[in-house]
Amino acid sequence: MGGTRFTYLDYAASAPMRAAALEAERAYEASEIAGANPNSLHTLGRRAARALDGARTDIARCLGGGFRPADIVFTSGGTESNNIALHGMAEALRLRERGRRRILVLSIEHDSEVDVVPSLRERGFEVGFVPVGRDGKARLDWLGEHLDDSCALVSLMSANNETGVVQPLGQAARMAHGVGALVHTDAAQAFGRIPLDLADVDAVSLAAHKIGGPVGIGALALRGRCPFRPQAFGGGQEQGRRPGTQDVRAALAFAAAARYCTEHLEEFRALVSGRARALHQRLAEADCGIEPTTDGAMGDDRLPGIVSVMTRRIDSETLVLKLDQAGFEVSAASACSSTSLDASHVLLAMGIPRDVALGSLRVSFDERVSEDDLVRFADALVGVVRSAR
C-alpha cells in the first residue's frame, strides 16, 4: 500500500465518530443490558428501555424548541426520517381535513425529499417547489403567495447540505401555521452546529452520523399533537410510529454525540467559522477563478464548516479525483448523489449556469480539522485548477 496521507474533508457526508460516542458504545457493550431487547418485560429488558428513554431525553434536550423525550422517534437515519415525515404527516392531515392535498417542498432539499415527490403525487398530492434566490435562501414572497387552506405540509430544510446556507425556517413556519399547514424541517446538517429556531416546527429529521455519532441511526422529532400516519407496521415500537426493535447501543452513542456538540456549540462554531473564512480568503487571494457559490463567504446565515466553491476551468469529477490523488477527500455535492454526472440541482435552482455548476466542490469539516490541513488543501486545490487547460 502507498504512503499517501489522507485528509478527510467530507464531514457533511459523514463525520468521523467522536470519542464520546465511541465511549458510549464501549460502556454499553460492557454493561449487563448489552443485547437486551428494550421491549421485553424482564429486568434487563426494562433496564434497556430506561437507557433508551435516557437517550431520548438527552436528544430532546439538545434539540430544544419545546420537544419532549416522547417526541423522539428513532429511525435508521435522515433519509428514513424525511420519507416517513413527508408521507406520514401529509396523509394524516388529509384524512382529517379532506381539502388539504397540497405539499410545498423547498427546491434545494436533499434527494431523500426531492425523490419522494413522485410517490406523493401518485398518492394524490399536488406538490410544489418553493424557489430560492441567488443567495440560496427560500423566497418567502413566493411562499406567501402560494399558502392557503389547501396546503397540508411545508417542508423547509434548516440549512442546505451543499452550500451551508441557513434557511429562514422560523418565519416560514409561522407563515405555514397561519393557514393551518404542518411544518417539517430536515435539520441533519444544522443540528449540533448552530442554534435552531424550532418553536413553530412540528417535526424535525436528524441523523447521528452528521455529528459524529454512528451510521445507521437517526430520529424524527415529532410533536405529540402532530397528526401522523405510520408508514410501516409490525411491532408497535416508538409508540406505534416506527416499528422494529431499537438499537440501544446506537441510540446511546447518538445521544453522547449530541450532548458533546451541544455543550461545545458556540466554541466550535466560532472556531470552525474562522477557519472557513480563512480558507475562503486564501482561495480568493490565489486569483485563479475559484469562486464561492453564494455571496458572502461566512456569517450567521451559513453553517460553520461547509465551504462551497466553483470554477469554470475544470469539472467536479476531475477536481475530486485529482484532489483524492493528492490526499484530500472532498465531494462534488451531496454524497448521496455524487456519482451523478449532472450538475447539482441545488446550484441550478440558485440560478447558477450549468457549465459553472458542473465545476462545483464542497469542502466540509469540524473543529478536528486543523488550520494547517486547510492551508495544505487550499494550495492543492489552487494547483489543480491552475494546471487545468
Q: Please tell me how large the radius of gyration is.
A: 21 Å
Instruction: Count the E strands.
Output: 12
Task: Indicate how many domains the architecture comprises.
Answer: 2
Strand order of the largest sheet: 2-8-7-6-5-3-4
- CATH superfamily grouping of the largest domain: Type I PLP-dependent aspartate aminotransferase-like (Major domain)
Q: For the record, what CATH class of the largest domain applies?
A: Alpha Beta
In DSSP terms, counting alpha (H) and pi (I) runs of 4 or more, how many helices? 13
Q: Using the alpha-carbon principal axes, give the shape.
A: globular
Q: What structural class do the secondary elements suggest?
A: alpha/beta
Q: What is the residue-mean pLDDT, rounded to a whole number? A: 95
CATH architecture of the largest domain: 3-Layer(aba) Sandwich
